[in-house]
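#lab-general

N.A. 3:47 PM
ok so I finally got the sequence cleaned up, no stray characters, all 92 residues accounted for. can someone with queue access submit it? mine expired

B.Y. 3:52 PM
send it over

N.A. 3:53 PM
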Amino acid sequence: MYANYFEEYQKQLADWQKQFLATWTSAIPSGKPVFEFPDSVKQSIELQEQLVKSYLESQETAAKIALENQKKFWEGYFDLARQSLATATKAA
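B.Y. 4:20 PM
back already:
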């Protein structure tokens, strides 16, 4: 049972190697590129680039918001500390 799978695998591998070598050798004398990228691949790359740019922009926005919130938190903390100190000083 496993021998059949192994034989089939070897046959497919050999066929793939033959096709690869045939394509490679046919392209060498003509100087023609073996692989030509269709428009869909270019569009896919452009889409990926747009996705990455929008992701980075959203990360930048999230970082700015986080920093603003931290700044407000600490400002509020120190204002409260000053008010507490002023109240404690007046009471004493």
